[in-house]
């Protein structure tokens, strides 16, 4: 039995496996420039961030209908459940779909077909977080929030993702203020490739409650002190960091130092179809490469539920936390 955990940093578009990409392409009459799944799987071995993003956006062309989004989310939830995920707070990128002529309603209602039944089908509770692409304009983010207004009963919070450098959090002040006024929770990617100042700015200007990635906080001791004091969760994605070269090798990942510093770290999969593994795979990888003890692994699992947006259901959070405390570690490969 895998370690019970919450996944808090997961882009649903990044869960598109080659087999499903071909299935949806055939269903929708979309031509993919790859002969078969083997050839496509080779393309998943991208060289850098840009080649990853190119493929990521290219493959989104197969997502057209509500059922496509439902199938995508359902496939993720099945895999996540098999790796011990009990609760998932799932990112989606509406601008990437709106730009292709796919409506907000198609995306949200499609995802909801899977999320709304996830608990009974997969035993995974879920929340949905709408992300803005930070390399798009602030005006586009505001329009996207406007387009989402009819669906806010489905959406728990907002986030900020895609290429970080050159797009500081302050660019999105207005849309974060508007989202806060609507009662939405706020997170943002910061300090992955961007500097530690972006983390401070995300906290001070955008009022975020969690930092996605946040690795580079380690360059600023005063910031680390603040994150520890205020118990600001960081959603780390170790395998993603290696694939996108934020760290050279997994054995050099700062996760142990971050835990030693007292930071509230969590382990997540980011874009698992592309980065070599789902949540449990990330746990197993850090256990193996970083030599984390069972108590450290339990701490990471505990943190994931403490950092979840489960304030509307504290009973559920307590139940999940009890599962973590009762967990008995078995095979080192299954986490
Ligand atoms: Zn991410």
TrEMBL record:
Q: Does the keyword Transferase apply?
A: no
Q: Which Pfam families does the entry mention?
A: A_deaminase (PF00962)
Family indicated by similarity: Belongs to the metallo-dependent hydrolases superfamily. Adenosine and AMP deaminases family. Adenine deaminase type 2 subfamily.
Where does this protein come from, organism-wise?
Answer: Streptomyces cellostaticus
Reaction equation(s) it catalyzes: adenine + H2O + H(+) = hypoxanthine + NH4(+)
A single GO BP annotation from the record?
adenine catabolic process
Q: Which residues bind substrate?
A: 271
Question: Where's the active site on this chain?
Answer: 192
Q: Which UniProt keywords apply?
A: Hydrolase, Metal-binding, Nucleotide metabolism, Zinc
Listed SUPFAM superfamilies = Metallo-dependent hydrolases
| Every Adenosine deaminase domain range | 4-317
Looking up InterPro entries in the UniProt record yields: A_deaminase_dom (IPR001365), ADE (IPR028892), Ado/ade_deaminase (IPR006330), Metal_Hydrolase (IPR032466)
Please give the cofactor(s) recorded in the UniProt entry for this protein. Answer: Zn(2+)
Q: Where is this site: Important for catalytic activity?
A: 213
Briefly, what is this protein's role? Catalyzes the hydrolytic deamination of adenine to hypoxanthine. Plays an important role in the purine salvage pathway and in nitrogen catabolism.
What does UniProt give as GO cellular component? Answer: cytosol
Which residues participate in Zn(2+) binding? 9, 11, 189, 270
Name of this chain's protein: Adenine deaminase
Enzyme Commission number: 3.5.4.2
Q: How is the cofactor bound?
A: Binds 1 zinc ion per subunit.
Q: Which GO terms describe its molecular function?
A: adenine deaminase activity; zinc ion binding
Judged by the first EC level, this protein's enzyme class is: hydrolase
